[in-house]
């Protein structure tokens, strides 16, 4: 009908302005405040650097490819000019597909609405709304006049992006080529880092060296897009010349370097950042813990340590073992499943959040080793054990329970995290532990006076390489715990016997090999341009 077509045209003509400005969009701009080679849309590149480019790595930049008509930024090089110049054009591009979006007239679809998370209180309501075979995706009130939020409010930090501050980015000094500190290393969002480097110092200039001053690390607020987050001082620890550390209670202010005779006090020796963020990637709090010390006139250099960790708001900080895949040498994360399913937001966790085995002791006495545990480290096969001295006076059943506690611990976990950064609320990212029992039957003339005691406990962790061949991630897919018991007959009075008790962990790589005839790493025989690595040497 004519009135329906008129209403549709009216909605189409009132479509909002494009959210993405293709002239400012650059997908090859990877380096912060530096020119990327052959990235013709990099705003950090100067005309002199453009003249050294050999080609444009991204010649065309567009926004949403589903639109019928949109702006496109076209980049090229004029090699005939002297020197060569970059050419930029902003053109209208038409989508040849008959299935395209003519106008984005539903403004609420231009930004992501935070979904309502299930809780015990609202689960029944969500089940009634979305539990049927079909449900309406339209809101109760279809209001096309509702303006989307400001563009700054929709921007959030993503994994790995540099944390921006007022002047540049949050610095996490680190060694580059040698062991000397470089302040050009930006801290990446959700990237836990720990670095150590050496800084050149002198007592005469310690007050003027910025890197030795607390203010250098907290003077610039973090840009959280909607507002700015100031870095607060969480704690200050003073380290004496002999290495003894003392916590300065109530010291939350600045302590600037101070020259006192032949000493320089309040020199920054370590900084530990603690960043709190929301599930939408918004930084809401930042704190720094400092280690201050003193240097003498003979000191020419000091070692500084820096660390940054991230904690999601309303959650307990849990140490990660990789992001996302496991890192060799870090603990295998484990936990339990408590009541409350399907709401296990905080259920898959334990006091240590680690898989552990029996730790060998110098005495090698099993009865004295109860409680000594060692964490299971990913990729490292381990074996430990102890010796059990059995006398005729020992009762079998209590002895069997004691050995079980020694091998498995007081509370053996039920699940293991498949990735190094698996969160507790992601139930599918946790692998249940399969338990097997092997009994070694031994023939005895006094079967009526014999029982089963555990003698070994083995854990097999099967893992695979997950993701691309270029950067595979270690993922645990199966964990099997095997308990082996043996029949122990009653000893005659006055007799003793010693048996070995063992515990082990084995990691097995079950990654599928490359298919026959498939070249996983092809050889490319080319000659690079002479300026391929510009501006790097």
Automatic annotation (TrEMBL):
<feature type="domain" description="Tectonic-1-3 N-terminal">
    <location>
        <begin position="9"/>
        <end position="122"/>
    </location>
</feature>
<keyword id="KW-0970">Cilium biogenesis/degradation</keyword>
<dbReference type="Pfam" id="PF25752">
    <property type="entry name" value="DUF1619_N"/>
</dbReference>
<dbReference type="InterPro" id="IPR040354">
    <property type="entry name" value="TCTN1-3"/>
</dbReference>
<comment type="similarity">
    <text>Belongs to the tectonic family.</text>
</comment>
<dbReference type="GO" id="GO:0060271">
    <property type="term" value="P:cilium assembly"/>
</dbReference>
<keyword id="KW-0732">Signal</keyword>
<feature type="domain" description="Tectonic-1-3">
    <location>
        <begin position="322"/>
        <end position="509"/>
    </location>
</feature>
<dbReference type="InterPro" id="IPR011677">
    <property type="entry name" value="TCTN1-3_dom"/>
</dbReference>
<feature type="domain" description="Tectonic-1-3">
    <location>
        <begin position="156"/>
        <end position="313"/>
    </location>
</feature>
<comment type="subunit">
    <text>Part of the tectonic-like complex (also named B9 complex).</text>
</comment>
<dbReference type="Pfam" id="PF07773">
    <property type="entry name" value="TCTN_DUF1619"/>
</dbReference>
<dbReference type="GO" id="GO:1904491">
    <property type="term" value="P:protein localization to ciliary transition zone"/>
</dbReference>
<dbReference type="InterPro" id="IPR057724">
    <property type="entry name" value="TCTN1-3_N"/>
</dbReference>
<protein>
    <submittedName>
        <fullName>TECT1 protein</fullName>
    </submittedName>
</protein>
<dbReference type="GO" id="GO:0036038">
    <property type="term" value="C:MKS complex"/>
</dbReference>
<keyword id="KW-0325">Glycoprotein</keyword>
């Amino acid at each position: 009908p004519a009135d329906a077509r008129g209403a549709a045209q009216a909605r189409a003509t009132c479509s909002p302005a494009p959210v993405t400005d293709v002239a400012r969009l650059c997908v090859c701009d990877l380096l912060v405040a530096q020119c990327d080679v052959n990235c013709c849309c990099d705003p950090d590149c100067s005309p002199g650097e453009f003249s050294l480019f050999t080609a444009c790595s991204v010649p065309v930049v567009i926004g949403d490819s589903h639109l019928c008509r949109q702006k496109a930024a076209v980049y090229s090089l004029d090699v005939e000019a002297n020197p060569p110049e970059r050419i930029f054009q902003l053109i209208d591009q038409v989508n040849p597909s008959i299935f395209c979006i003519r106008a984005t007239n539903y403004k609420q679809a231009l930004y992501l609405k935070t979904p309502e998370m299930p809780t015990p209180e609202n689960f029944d309501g969500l089940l009634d709304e979305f539990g049927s075979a079909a449900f309406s995706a339209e809101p109760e009130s279809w209001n096309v006049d509702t303006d989307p939020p400001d563009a700054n409010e929709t921007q959030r930090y993503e994994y790995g992006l540099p944390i921006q501050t007022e002047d540049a980015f949050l610095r996490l000094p680190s060694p580059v080529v040698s062991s000397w500190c470089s302040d050009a290393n930006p801290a990446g969002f959700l990237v836990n880092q720990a670095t150590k480097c050496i800084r050149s110092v002198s007592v005469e200039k310690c007050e003027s060296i910025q890197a030795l001053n607390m203010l250098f690390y907290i003077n610039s607020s973090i840009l959280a897009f909607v507002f700015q987050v100031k870095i607060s001082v969480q704690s200050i620890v003073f380290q004496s010349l002999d290495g003894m550390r003392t916590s300065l209670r109530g010291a939350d202010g600045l302590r600037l370097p101070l020259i006192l005779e032949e000493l320089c006090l309040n020199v920054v020796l370590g900084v530990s950042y603690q960043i709190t963020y929301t599930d939408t990637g918004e930084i809401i709090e930042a704190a720094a813990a400092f280690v201050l010390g003193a240097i003498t006139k003979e000191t020419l250099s000091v070692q500084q340590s820096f660390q940054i960790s991230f904690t999601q708001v309303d959650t307990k900080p849990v140490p990660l073992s990789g992001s996302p895949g496991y890192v060799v040498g870090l603990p295998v994360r484990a936990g339990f499943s408590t009541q409350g399913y399907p709401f296990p937001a905080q259920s898959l966790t334990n006091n240590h959040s680690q898989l552990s085995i029996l730790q060998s002791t110098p005495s090698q006495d099993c009865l004295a080793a109860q409680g000594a545990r060692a964490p299971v480290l990913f990729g490292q096969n381990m074996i430990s054990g102890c010796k059990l001295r059995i006398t005729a006076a020992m009762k079998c059943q209590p002895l069997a329970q004691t050995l079980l506690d020694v091998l498995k611990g007081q509370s053996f976990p039920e699940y293991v995290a498949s990735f190094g950064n698996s969160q507790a609320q992601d139930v599918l990212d946790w692998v249940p532990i399969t338990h097997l029992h092997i009994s070694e039957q031994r023939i005895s003339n006094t079967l009526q006076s014999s029982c089963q005691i555990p003698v070994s406990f083995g854990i097999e962790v099967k893992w695979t390489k997950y993701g691309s061949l270029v950067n595979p991630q270690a993922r645990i897919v199966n964990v099997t715990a095997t308990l082996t018991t043996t029949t122990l007959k009653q000893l005659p009075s006055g007799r003793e016997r010693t048996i070995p008790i063992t515990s082990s962990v084995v990691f097995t790589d079950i990654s599928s090999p490359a298919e026959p005839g498939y070249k996983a790493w092809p050889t490319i025989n080319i000659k690079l341009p002479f300026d391929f690595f510009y501006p790097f040497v």
